[in-house]
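We modelled the chain as a single entity of 122 amino acids. Its sequence is:
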Amino acid sequence: MIGYVTLGTNDMPRAATFYDALLEGIGAKRLMETERYIFWGVSMQLPSLALVKPFDGLPATIGNGDMVALVVDGRDKVDRLHAKALLLGGTDEGAPGDRGGGFYAGYFRDLEGHKFNVFCTG
């Protein structure tokens, strides 16, 4: 159902370095890019994540209540991706752990303050 998610950035080179390093750990790479945007994903046929310079030319801001969830196939990957985000300068929003019902997740914010959840089920 979801094709892609976009997040605004005010510093494309800095943000690109963060996401290149973070997303390589789950097999994602740059799929498309211009001066205004970069898309990361594992395939053009699967959902992707994009960073964009806002079209209206105003500064990018974070949305209260907005969150992007990244699914992985194991608790070890949740732990590694969460730790990598913090190592790259992201901030902790909730250490990896069991959230109940077989839902294992960790939460962090990227360099611009966008909230992420990395999770697995089962």
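As a brief sanity check on the tokenised model: The chain has a mean pLDDT of 95. The helical segments are 12-23, 75-87.
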